[in-house]
Design a protein that fits this description.
single chain, 347 residues, alpha/beta, OB fold (Dihydrolipoamide Acetyltransferase, E2P), Rossmann fold, Ribonucleotide Reductase Protein R1, domain 1, 3 domains, six-stranded mixed β-sheet
Length: 347
């Protein structure tokens, strides 16, 4: 497939696409104006790239480029392929979900300001899943916001809100409905100024309905959940960058059943800030929080101010991350021996 020569718009980039400072800086280093745009969709080695809101999108090959939806990219003059992926402001990354690639990264979305973690009020609150999502969200470089959907189907959301607030210290928890419109404007406001929000959640939590409400029209197909377990079918099949009314962008993602960690910078510390605050007050710096004298964590558990399941969850995630890092090191050594080490993408 061949594209016509890419027209340079203004200074070579359309600011309405939500350009970040880091991407703009690198683009200028390359000698502007060069044709550049933003990846709006990926399909089996092909990128759909928006160069301007005034021009139709380009479809090009990702030859040698590690791209994700939301990336800013420089494209060749003929519009045939991605020439370079520009530095990311943020990247929501998890471990590849298919067996055999446990030490491979899967970037779900890039250059997002706020990642909205979607849970349904019609299902029992899943604290353990939210903890995992918060680790990934904090590590992405974006700001997490918890969104509880389907408020039109329940009488009082207070108990679920409180349950999830307990494991999301310092994180905004919102209630919304894509049917009644409750909370939609407040969520959309997070993308003002051409900012980008991303939605992440399991199938059946009302994500596609919320997308339609945020966009203002029926963009995504929706499906009924099963009555027995409230699980839904995947109505979103690929991540996609969508323009919001007025300004701002939204990245919708397919339903994610398994939330697999990749590697944590400070995500675990941020997601478990309450536990780490207690750990700072333990008598011994190497305290294992298991019957040691002067343990502030054990004291909080005994006093009922810390749920012991939260400590157990944090311990499991730390151990999981250690195993993953060992897998990554082993894979890098194997690649070095073969002389084909994969170059890491720009942060």
């Amino acid at each position: 497939m061949s594209n016509a020569t890419v027209a340079v718009i203004g200074d070579g980039r359309d600011p309405r696409l939500g350009w970040t400072d880091d991407a703009t800086r690198r683009w200028r280093e390359l000698g502007s104006p060069v044709a550049a745009g933003r990846v709006s969709r990926l399909d089996r080695g092909w990128s759909t790239v928006l160069v301007s809101l005034d021009e139709p999108p380009l479809r090009m090959r990702n030859i040698g480029a590690d791209v994700a939806v939301g990336d800013f990219v420089v494209v060749t003059d003929d519009g045939e392929r991605v020439l370079e992926v520009l530095p990311r402001r943020s990247a929501f990354v998890r471990r590849a979900s298919f067996e055999g690639n446990r030490a491979e990264a899967h970037t779900i979305a890039a250059n997002i300001a706020v990642v909205m973690l979607i849970h349904a009020l019609t299902s029992p609150p899943n604290q353990r899943r939210l903890e995992r999502e918060l680790v990934l969200a904090w590590d992405s470089g974006a700001r997490p916001v918890v969104v509880l959907t389907k408020s039109d189907l329940i009488d009082d959301p207070a108990a679920t809100v409180a349950s999830l607030q307990d494991v999301a210290p310092g994180v905004e928890v919102c209630v919304a409905s894509g049917i009644s419109g409750e909370g939609v404007e407040a969520l959309r406001a997070h993308a003002t100024g051409n900012g980008t929000i991303a939605l992440l959640g399991a199938s059946g939590v009302g994500k596609s309905t919320l997308v339609n409400a945020l966009v203002g029209h029926e963009r995504q197909a929706t499906a009924h959940v099963r009555e027995g377990d409230q699980r839904g079918r995947h109505t979103t099949t690929a991540s996609e960058l969508v323009r919001l009314p007025g300004d701002g962008w939204l990245i919708d993602t397919p339903g994610v059943r398994a939330v697999s960690l990749w590697s944590s910078g400070h995500g675990i510390e941020r997601a478990f800030a309450d536990v780490f605050e207690l750990m700072d007050h333990c008598r011994f710096r190497n305290c294992k929080h298991d019957q040691e004298p002067g343990c502030a964590v054990s004291a909080a558990i005994e006093a009922g101010t810390l749920d012991p399941r939260r400590l157990d969850s944090m311990t499991r995630l730390v151990a999981e991350e250690a195993i993953l890092e060992e897998e990554q090191r082993a894979q890098e050594k194997a690649q070095d021996r073969r002389g084909v080490r994969k170059q890491r993408p720009r942060p």
